[in-house]
């Protein structure tokens, strides 16, 4: 297997910077290079030694790279795949993008790229380098989505890297991935932002309403603090599965609404018990 | 002010048992008595010294009580107020119920009861005595809902008790309370159980979908693990405000759905930024 000496991370947001920190701590590579379009971020990455070298130029950043890791929002990842092909980059590449079908379809257009998609199921509502966490990927599930034509070497290199960062690698095809994350991540996000926006409209500037906030509100709205651009791209590139999820959510919500409206205690107990039972069965305690 | 020697807590679930533990640690009273309809709970309360004495009999439990604390689901609290009046209890009384209009209306029917409603904004998805937490009320907002005819002495006694347990006392009228908690607690609960039930239906027994679960799903569904009976009573006794909240939530959800359906990136960014901005402004960091 080819020895990975240099990894270039494109996008030094919370995810990219966490990846850089984890990579450095694991001492897996000789050189970590960062690329970010924002000059301030490049400066911050250098000042805080997040990477060994950082630049705003993709061409400069990928020079001598054995592996390029695309750590931007999904629509940008698709543009970067095209840019890598144009720059005649022929090394390994992966991404940290939150949807996989659109990314993998785009990657397939560039046969010379040794690309395999990956999606670490880890995140934070914190943004940028200040939100970076060296342990973000430890024990996190990382979904890899190789295609039939994906280079076996790329799969090996990227799988090996994730394993050394102590992530749990799971293999899925891109469609299966996108549907599963819609259920487990994108619908909860839809719900979280909608809860936050609904509360503000209902409170109608009476902000004392928020003075009585307890854990339930804090927890259900935590992910509403996440990056809008990243989530815009997720909704745009996983449109079908997210719309399917919203349709089902609305159906369930209408059933609950009807039970409340009809003061149907038995039906309310049934719906609430179902949720309690599933939650206890599917989500390990103390998490 | 009358010295409180004995407090009787009716309902030794997670809330009642936490109240007993907090009261004992603060060494505020001479005797803590527990009442619970379940013989097993009475036994457990005695075995674990949650209270100084426990019984299944309300009449026995309230004997010599200076203050009775009703810590059951709301509909049961209303029945207990009637039972206290029937037993000719004339001491102080309060409750820990999650809605206040229905409870205070019922309490007003019994002029001899020195009742003032309170609602600690603290909870847990844990149930029963094993879920009890001696620090549950520390720094928690506790909403008290005195009415025009409420005994001033009752207000003093109950306020004083909460303050000694280190809770933050906030005064509201019952309608204002019920609307505020609908926004901050009941709608998030509606959303949490609906997210849980929707995920199960979408996953359709393919439980490997849940193997990729990350923090977002765990947080948004945490409160779905709470007691169904308690929440049935909340929905039944705060029907109007909860239905109003659901109607607004559905409106917001439909706007987001339309933006996704129309692939309207600008509108998605707008909705997501609004939620992010509100969340950052209204929810203190690190919570």
Note the topology:
2 copies of one chain form a homodimer.
Chain A: E1 6-10, H1 14-26, E2 31-35, H2 39-47, E3 53-55, H3 58-62, E4 67-70, H4 74-86, E5 92-95, H5 101-108, E6 114-115, E7 117-120, E8 141-145, H6 152-164, E9 168-171, H7 174-203, H8 215-221, H9 228-237, H10 239-261, H11 265-282
Parallel strand pairs in A: 1-2, 1-4, 2-3, 4-5, 5-6, 8-9
Antiparallel strand pairs in A: 7-8
What proportion strand of chain A? 5-15%
**Treating each run of at least 4 consecutive H or I residues as one helix, how many helices of chain A?**
11
Radius of gyration of chain A: 21 Å
Stretches with pLDDT under 50, minimum 5 residues of chain A: none
Question: Cα distance, first to last residue of chain A?
Answer: 38 Å
Find the biggest chain interface: A-B, 91 and 91 residues
Structural class of chain A: alpha/beta
The counted number of beta strands of chain A is 9
Helix and strand run of chain A: EHEHEHEHEHEEEHEHHHHH
Helix content of chain A: 40-55%
- What would you call the shape of chain A? globular
Mean pLDDT of chain A: 94
């Amino acid at each position: 297997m080819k020895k990975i000496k240099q990894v270039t991370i494109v996008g030094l947001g919370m995810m990219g910077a966490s990846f850089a920190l984890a990579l450095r701590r694991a001492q897996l590579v000789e050189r970590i290079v960062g690329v970010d379009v924002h000059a301030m971020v490049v400066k911050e990455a250098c000042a805080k030694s997040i990477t060994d070298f950082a630049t705003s130029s993709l061409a400069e950043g990928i020079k001598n790279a054995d592996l390029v890791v695309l750590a931007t929002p999904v629509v940008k990842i698709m543009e970067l795949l095209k840019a890598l092909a144009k720059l005649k980059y022929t090394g390994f590449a992966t991404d940290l993008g939150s949807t996989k079908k659109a990314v993998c379809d785009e990657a397939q257009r560039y046969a010379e790229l040794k690309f395999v998609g990956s999606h670490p199921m880890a995140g934070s509502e914190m943004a940028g380098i200040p939100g970076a966490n060296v342990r973000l990927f430890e024990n996190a599930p990382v979904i890899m989505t190789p295609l039939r034509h994906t280079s076996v070497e790329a799969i090996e290199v990227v799988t090996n890297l994730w394993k050394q960062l102590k992530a749990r690698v799971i293999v899925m095809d891109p469609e299966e991935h996108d549907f599963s994350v819609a259920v487990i991540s994108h619908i909860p996000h839809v719900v979280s932002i909608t809860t936050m926006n609904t509360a503000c409209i209902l409170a109608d500037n009476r902000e004392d309403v928020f003075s009585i906030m307890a854990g339930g509100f804090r927890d259900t709205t935590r992910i509403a603090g996440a990056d809008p651009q990243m989530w815009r791209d997720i909704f745009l590139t996983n449109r079908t599965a997210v719309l399917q999820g919203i349709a089902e959510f609305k159906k369930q919500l209408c059933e609950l609404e009807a039970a409340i409206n009809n003061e149907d205690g038995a039906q309310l107990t049934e719906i609430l018990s179902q949720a309690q039972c599933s939650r206890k069965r599917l989500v390990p305690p103390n998490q």
